[in-house]
Amino acid sequence: MHGLWKKLLPVVLLLSLSSCGYNQFQSLDEEAKASWSEVLNQYQRRADLLPNLVATVKGYAEHEEKVLTEVAEARSKVGSMQITPELLNDPEAFAKFQAAQGQLTSALSRLMAVAENYPNLKADQGFRDLQAQLEGTENRVTVARNRYIETIKDYNIAVRSFPNNLTAMMFGYKAKPSFTVENEKAISTAPKVEFGDKK
């Protein structure tokens, strides 16, 4: 009889783990990592566009040095951050990442506002191409962030819900940080980078 329990115990434990959300945590954790990777890919795509954009604007608006410097510094700050998988589990590091990306978004918005003052720049085909790529990238960033927010919401609900929370405590699963914005509308609206003749 004692030998039978030894054989049945792993089966009982396995069934207990699967009914208490262990497998769900594995799935949700992988989804979180995948959606985070997509956020990073889109932010990197944006960062890669900036040197050409700054160079193009500089050709027409060289004396706008303050704005050009702000963009370069914000991009440099984003590029110097250590982005590791652990960032997803560290609210403080995540907040720093979000703040750095927010500074870059703000600097980029100021750069685009400056460009409004230079009709020749707005007419430049290279600038127009970059602006179209940037607009597409900002939209992708918004979509990727929204997917990440939804994924993390599902993950955090699982971590906090009974009886899954017992499994979460047992295996060290904790709520993950998500994006926050002062203006909730900002999360669903990409920065405006369109230009055209105002009528």
Topology, please?
Blueprint lengths: L1 H18 L2 H39 L4 H16 L10 H25 L3 H5 L1 H36 L3 H8 L28
Helix pairs in contact: 2-3, 2-6, 3-4
Task: Offer a quick outline of the entry.
The chain has helices at 2-19, 22-60, 65-80, 91-115, 119-123, 125-160, 164-171. The protein has 199 residues and is an all-alpha fold.
What does this structure look like?
This protein is mainly alpha-helical and 199 residues long. It has one domain: LemA-like domain (de novo design (two linked rop proteins), Up-down Bundle), CATH 1.20.1440.20. Helices cover 74% and strands 0% of the residues. It is built from 7 helices and no strands. The chain has helices at 2-19, 22-60, 65-80, 91-115, 119-123, 125-160, 164-171. The longest helix is centred in the first third of the chain and has 39 residues, at 22-60. The radius of gyration is 23 Å and the shape is elongated. The termini are far apart. Mean pLDDT is 83; it is low at 182-199.
